[in-house]
């Protein structure tokens, strides 16, 4: 059942553009309409209280490192059953608008349903089981319409739940032919190291004798069948978190290996409420331990990718892998984490990254999804909306195409910053994640020391009333800085503006807590 919404398809994108708008919230139906506020023309923050947080000094550089932030570092992973959803067609929903708000995000189709529910057919066969979803060439053609609009590249999962190399090769060949240059990788199976696990929907797909050696044997069988049809088809794998299985893929006889694909979720200790820790608590997303865990686990993938001479693609990730409707993913902390984690992973050397998502309901669906359908659970609409962490990902678009430089952060408490240089050295983009909790302090005085000759052209921000606030992440669109910049620090430059009209290279500004702020700088 599809409920048509009397809303323009661009409305969800506008949610991300309008000042002080909140993602995922529902207005009070009994509220009295207020007079509309004037549209802001300068960057104006909302502080929850006095800015009594620890002062921070940020020193930026325009000297390039070896790591870049690519358009593909922003991406969405969908369950492969979504291929059969008619709303992938740009004429059938606003999904293309949401994706376009992320630049040209990578799209990945896989997930647990790939090996347990997807039934590929190019000849009109009926599915064998009631839980199966038929995927056909027509579905791939619909996907092609979407990627033509968004400019996305695609990685496509080929089912390995049942060993059918002929059927898998047929799906691969159609995918190569239909998607063309948009296709950058075929993944044979999803998380094959978990094929014996029974406590997942639709259960185990292999017996107790399943191991890495049998995986490689079947992987090679599929790859051979695929390359007999399409010799240049790019193969990625193994779509796991386990380094030993990465080695198994890397050392296999599969030709046209294109990338090591890893899966990893920040919070996976589902029964734990320990803070700091890896249980699904909002505080754990912004605790410094989160970065330590990411560095350790993504480092495993990077080491194996480097040993194989292949790039590392993080094909499935997210704030938490815990089942059910865990509300941690709906908090403002999830947005802060998404911005920080995405940039941090790229700086570690991850070249593609996709946040796992679904096209399900906002109420009762998976909260970790970047997008959701506001229609009642069990029904569908043609108007998707973004979760808090979608707003964070959109904030990173100005950094795409840039090369990381060194950014030093002194003081500031729980604060991180990343800078990229782009446009032949004419533009710097700095992203500051202020994860100090707005429930405890309104913000922090920050001194931003820029390389000589640069000035802030625009700033934009997402923020919330606290780290743990749910569905309360608001967006301040990109505007020039105001003439009177709020600053509660002890020292201040002559003008404090570091604008194109001043001679300063230092910006003094109070930054709201529980926020992500992006400064776009240009040479004067």
Automatic annotation (TrEMBL):
Residues 488-502 have a biased composition (Low complexity). The keyword Signal applies. Gene3D superfamilies: Glycosidases, Golgi alpha-mannosidase II. Residues 483-504 are annotated as: Disordered. Residues 1-27 form the signal peptide. The keyword Signal applies. It comes from Brevibacterium picturae. InterPro entries: GH, GH79_Enzymes, Glyco_hydro_b. Coiled coil: none annotated. Keywords: Signal. This is Uncharacterized protein.
């Amino acid at each position: 059942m599809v409920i048509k919404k009397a809303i323009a398809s661009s409305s969800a994108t506008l949610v991300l553009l309008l000042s002080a708008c909140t993602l995922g919230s529902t207005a009070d139906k009994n509220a009295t309409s207020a007079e509309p506020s004037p549209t802001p023309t300068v960057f104006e923050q909302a502080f929850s209280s006095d800015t009594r947080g620890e002062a921070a000094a940020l020193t930026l550089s325009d000297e390039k490192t070896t790591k870049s932030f690519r358009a593909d570092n922003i991406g969405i992973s969908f369950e492969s059953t979504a291929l059969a959803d008619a709303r992938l067609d740009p004429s059938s929903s606003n999904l293309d608008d949401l994706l376009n708000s992320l630049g040209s995000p990578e799209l990945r189709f896989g997930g647990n349903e790939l090996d347990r529910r997807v039934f590929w057919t190019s000849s009109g066969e009926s599915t064998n089981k009631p839980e199966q979803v038929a995927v056909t060439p027509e579905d791939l053609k619909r996907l092609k319409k979407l990627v033509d609009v968004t400019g996305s590249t695609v990685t496509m999962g080929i089912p390995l739940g049942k060993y059918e190399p002929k059927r898998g090769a047929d799906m691969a060949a159609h995918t190569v032919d239909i998607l063309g240059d948009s296709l950058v990788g075929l993944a044979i199976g999803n998380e094959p190291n978990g094929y014996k696990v029974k406590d997942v929907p639709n259960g185990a797909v292999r017996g107790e004798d399943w191991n890495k050696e049998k995986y490689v044997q079947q992987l090679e069988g599929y790859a051979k069948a695929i390359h007999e049809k399409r010799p240049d088809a790019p193969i990625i794998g193994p779509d796991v978190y386990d380094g030993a299985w990465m080695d198994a893929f890397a050392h296999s006889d599969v030709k046209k290996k294109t990338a090591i694909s890893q899966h990893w979720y920040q919070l996976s200790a589902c029964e734990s409420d320990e803070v700091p820790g890896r249980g699904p608590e909002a505080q754990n997303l912004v605790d410094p331990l989160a970065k330590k865990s990411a560095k350790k686990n993504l480092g495993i993938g990077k080491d194996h990718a480097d040993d194989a001479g292949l790039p590392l693609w993080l094909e499935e990730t997210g704030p938490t892998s815990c089942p059910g409707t865990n509300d941690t993913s709906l908090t403002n902390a999830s947005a802060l984490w998404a911005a920080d984690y995405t940039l941090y992973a790229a700086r570690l050397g991850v070249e593609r990254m996709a946040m796992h998502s679904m096209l399900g309901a906002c109420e009762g669906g998976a909260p970790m999804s970047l997008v959701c359908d506001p229609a009642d659970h069990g029904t569908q609409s043609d108007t998707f909306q973004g979760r808090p962490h979608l707003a964070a990902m959109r904030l990173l678009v100005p950094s795409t195409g840039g090369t990381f430089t060194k950014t030093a952060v002194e003081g500031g408490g729980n604060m991180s910053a990343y800078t990229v240089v782009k446009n032949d050295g004419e533009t710097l983009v700095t992203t500051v994640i202020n994860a100090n909790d707005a429930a405890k302090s309104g913000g922090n005085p920050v001194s931003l020391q820029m390389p000589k000759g640069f000035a802030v052209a625009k700033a934009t921000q997402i923020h919330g009333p606290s780290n743990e606030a749910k569905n309360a992440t608001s967006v301040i669109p990109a505007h020039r800085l105001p003439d009177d910049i709020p600053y509660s620090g002890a020292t201040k430059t002559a003008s404090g503006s570091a604008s194109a009209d001043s001679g300063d290279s230092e910006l003094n500004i109070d930054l709201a807590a529980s926020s992500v702020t992006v400064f776009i700088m240009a040479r004067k």
